[in-house]
Design brief:
Layout lengths: L3 H5 L21 E10 L3 E9 L2 E7 L10 E10 L8 E3 L7 E16 L3 E7 L4 E8 L6 E6 L1
Antiparallel strand pairs: 1-2, 1-6, 2-3, 3-4, 4-9, 5-6, 6-7, 7-8, 8-9
This protein binds manganese (II) ion (MN).
The site of manganese (II) ion has 6 residues, from strand 2.
Length: 149
């Protein structure tokens, strides 16, 4: 199941993150967009897009670009439940991802293109707006480049 990796990493008796389940799968071109600032061992930004009943997720080690010309590494991580888009709080010490999670930007997006090598979307957020691209590195499994395009 799509959330096994997510649920397997967490102890829901200890963290206030949602356990979640896969949401209704609809053939829709877009949905929820959110970026959470996550002050874990290393500060990063978790970029998430709703697709197929879950949030497809990437960790971006530096602040996401609001202007063209800045490219950021985005490391694909496990799918998260849709409810995670509303999550803010502190994951306790000793738990997976321990540290403060805050919503940094939120809104909606529409898909222009989405396949295994590349994604382009139109983001309608507070900080990020316009067309964004994710391009997969050919030789690395989970590494993508994220930029305004
Ligand atoms: Mn994170």
């Amino acid at each position: 199941m799509a959330l096994d990796a997510y649920q397997g990493k967490r102890n829901f008796m200890k963290t206030s993150e949602p356990e979640g389940e896969v949401g209704k799968i609809e053939k829709k071109k877009g949905g929820i967009y959110v970026i959470q600032k996550h002050q874990a061992t290393h500060l990063h930004y978790d970029f998430r897009l709703e697709k197929d009943g879950v949030l497809k997720s990437w960790a971006i080690p530096k602040e996401p670009p609001v202007e063209k010309g800045v490219k950021r590494l985005a490391v694909m991580v496990e799918d998260h439940p849709l409810e995670y888009a509303d999550f803010e709080g502190t994951i306790p010490e000793g738990e997976y991802g321990a540290g403060l999670v805050q919503i940094w930007d939120k809104g909606t997006y529409e898909t222009e293109k989405w396949d295994e090598n590349g994604i382009s979307v139109f983001i309608n957020g507070g900080r990020l707006n316009g067309r964004y691209c994710l391009v997969k590195f050919k030789r690395e499994q989970n590494s993508w480049l994220f930029f305004k395009c």
